[in-house]
Amino acid sequence: MLKNLTELEQRAVDAEINLADGHPRQRLTEQQEAVAGRFTELFDLARRAPFADVEHAAHTAFFEMLGQRSAPVHSGRTFSVYSSSVATMVVSAVLAERGYSVGLLHPTFDNIHDLLVRVTAVTPVSEDRCAAADLSAVLAAGARCLFVTTPNNPTGWFLDAERFRALAAECAVHGVILCVDASFRGFDTRAQFDHYAILEQTGASYLVIEDTGKLWPFAELKLGFLAVSEDLRPAVEHALSDVLLTVSPFVLKLVEALSVDGRQGGLDRLHTLVAANRERVGKAVAQLDGVQLADGDARVSVSRLAFSHSRQAGAVHDALRVLGVHVLPCAQFHWAHPDEGRHLLRLALSRDPESLATGLSKLVEAHVTVQNAEKGW
Asked: What is the CATH number of the domain that holds 81?
């Protein structure tokens, strides 16, 4: 039985070189250090202000940072949760209560599938079909929800405004709930058009999962948000009542402060780091026979390496672990057809350049070791 991706990431938390999980582990920028220096002030503000005011300010700052000015913040249809995984649990509960099965983007991070499949049937839907607003697989399976991750983890694929509008409109026509996981939106300006304006204009029923946990390296202090259409609000409120009362007002104040910094150049600095690290990966891979970057146009904080065959990818993964470097195999992302991902490895890019450089030098070493071993295969 394949271990799930989170189990593999847990192995890497204290590793010498952790290039496995997509959580940000680079050093704080000068501006983020200044935010950290305000912790006492933020805590005091969070303690004194009404919770509703603190939450509203955080929601407003976060969504404005990402260009989502039509998000249903003022109408009270945006809910705070501990993480995007908790938001996915709430979505699962809503769908299970209604007896709705789901069409899920394939490939994508396996915990989305694992949380959904515990309560309902799940049908794979390819990126190409989503881009073409083709709901045939969803409708043939009798599914009443389409769950799309855009930008996608691990491929970096995304829906642009035109394709997103077409997909939302098609969902509205067929009475299919559109669930969007936008956790990686912050990395790709091409995906920062106002999704909520389009959703409201098309009349689609929607659930949108947002996440702060991929953006800021603040020792796992993070929040997720779940924004919903009016028709789904009562069901979401009820499902949330089984999970939490409120989130931390201090973390809300932190998200607000970091969102303001993000709007004032913080996101640009993050994009520069990720782009430079992706270039470093490309230069390292250029030295390796039979290996290439899989997603040349991706801007998310991960990068996939495609090996000439799955046996080589598995051997390099194992050799890296011996050298103290953890990356992710990709079979689990292809949850419906694992063999499709066995020739791929995923590296995290939200890392200090020095840490990544060490990991890449070990990658070259591991590849040489495997090549030498291949001669005896």
From this structure: 3.40.640.10
Read off the CATH number of the domain in which 329 is found: 3.90.1150.10
What is the pTM (predicted TM-score) of this model?
Answer: 0.97
Last residue of a domain, one of 261, 291, 309: 261
Q: What is the pLDDT of residues 228-260, one digit of tens each?
A: 999 999 999 999 999 999 999 999 999 999 999
Characterize the bridge pairing of strands 302-307 and 291-293.
Answer: antiparallel
Are 176 and 323 within one domain?
A: no
DSSP letter, residue 27: P
Q: Are 183 and 1 in contact (CB under 8 A)?
A: no
Indicate the number of domains in the chain.
Answer: 2
Question: Residue 316 and residue 172: Cα distance in Å, rounded?
Answer: 46
Strand 122-126 relative to strand 102-106, pairing: parallel
The pLDDT assigned to 15 comes to 83
- Name residue, tokens 């299970």: 96
Cβ atoms of residues 41 and 257 within 8 Å: no
User: For residue 264, what are the CA distances in angstroms to 171, 201, 213, 216, 261?
Assistant: 36, 30, 19, 15, 5
Query: Does residue 242 sit in the same domain as residue 277?
Result: no
β-pair type (78-81, 102-106): unpaired
Distance of alpha carbon 162 from alpha carbon 307, whole angstroms = 34
